[in-house]
Amino acid sequence: MPKLTRWMLKTALVYLILALSLEGLQTAFSAWIPTFSTQGLRPVYIHLFMLGWVTQMIIGVAIWLFPPRSKHLPRGNEKLSWVGFWGLNMGLALRAAGEPFLGRANENEWFWQIILVISALIQVASLFVFMLQLWVRIKGAKGK
Amino acid sequence: MPILSRFLIRASLLYFAAITLLGGALLINKAMPFNSNLWRFYSLHIEWAFVGWIIQLVLGVACWIFPKPPGGVRHIWLGWVGFVLINAALIALPTISTVGIFSYPNLKLISHLFQILGILAIAGHLWIRIGFLPAFLKSN
User: Fold this and answer.
1) What is the predicted ipTM?
2) Is the pLDDT of residue B138 over 90?
3) Among B55, B67, B65, B73, residue whose Cα is nearest residue B120
4) Is B13 in Cβ contact with A140 (below 8 Å)?
């Protein structure tokens, strides 16, 4: 199993634990503290689960198992894939940090708005890196 | 990798690209609102993520790695019918709704019906490969 796949699978498992813990805490706090606002937490939970866990697990396994791109570069440009890995996880972490603070009418609203825009751009760029890396590895037995 | 798998996986990656762009635009729009009409595509973002990206990728990989019977893979047409139905349903959602031929709830209903039939067709193809074959299909 390549090193990048191991990192992606382990990170995916961490996100699974984080996502389920967040959902559990959100449910508990809503029940115990009536004034507790879950605004912004639900989309964070869904994206930690769908992007951090499901998508990262799928991409990690695909990098490992898809047909090799070529003899010299079986897994394509691995440096670029590492950039994609760090970008995806930094973008997701920024989103998780910023989204709960959005729309709470605090004086630092502009700061969280910028964080979320940066997070969106980093995530889109990283996911496109993975999409293009996998696209060229979809081929038949004769390499077509 | 068989040609059906290549079509299913490539289609799933195209939906992945689409939901990534749409998701990025929705997040930026949430942080710094620039077009409230963008939220109309929120349910499309979810539908394309679940069915277009994840389910289609899983089915494509299953068609690739599931056991192949000694006599070769039969009833491959079921897989192709499934591929066409799923993608027709998913592509029809945003395109026909913008033209306005059907109302959106009716269109969603038809789209879901096509998606179910498509997934049933591919499941039928995979079911045969797993090993359990209903008697009426054994003679073919």
Assistant:
1) 0.89
2) no
3) B55
4) no
Q: What residue type is assigned to position A104 of the chain?
A: R
Q: pLDDT digits over B66-123, tens only?
A: 888 777 777 889 999 999 999 999 998 776 666 666 666 777 888 899 999 999 999 9
Separation CA B103–CA A144 (nearest Å): 42
- Say yes or no to pLDDT of B52 above 60: yes
Question: In this predicted structure, what is the pLDDT of residue B102?
Answer: 61
Question: Quick check: B65 and B125 in contact, CB under 8 A?
Answer: no
Query: Is residue A28 classed exposed, middle or buried when 0-12, 13-18 and 19+ CB atoms within 10 A define those classes?
Result: exposed
Chain A residue with Cα closest to B49: A50
**What count of Cα atoms within 13 Å lies in the side-chain half-sphere of residue B76?**
12
The highest-confidence range among A84-93, A97-106, B65-74, by mean pLDDT, is A84-93
**pLDDT tens, position by position, A22-34:** 999 888 888 888 7
Neighbours of A16 (CB within 10 A): 17
Q: For tokens 């950039």, name the residue.
A: A83
Q: Domain limits of chain B?
A: 3-138
Tokens representing A130 are 């993975």
Q: Do B31 and A127 touch (CB under 8 A)?
A: no
- How far separated are the first and last CA of chain B, in Å rounded? 25
Restricting to B residues 52-91, those with a Cβ less than 8 Å away from any Cβ of A are: 54, 57
Distance, CA of B55 to CA of B40 (rounded, Å): 23
Q: Which residues of B touch A99 (CB under 8 A)?
A: 30
